[in-house]
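Problem: given the chain below (91 residues), write out its structure.
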Amino acid sequence: MAERPGVLRAGDRMLFGGGEHQVVGLAGNAVPQGLLDGLPEHVARAARDWERHLIEVLTGVPPDAPDGAAPRPEYDLARPLAERNRPRLPS
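Solution.
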């Protein structure tokens, strides 16, 4: 069955308010915002840092990378996922 245009699902990405956002939840016809609101700032910051890392592990580039950016060697999609997800040790 063909998808209807304009239908949002969890996981979709959209442009809103000058930035790219990922839909993480829906309630009726509303997209919940501010899932990190109400958390201590250091907890919200850690969650955003992990999100950035996971996006880079899965896509090869961080979410704010320019279009066409090449992945850093340690995140190259040619490497197995398990290798890309290894924790980075400080140099």
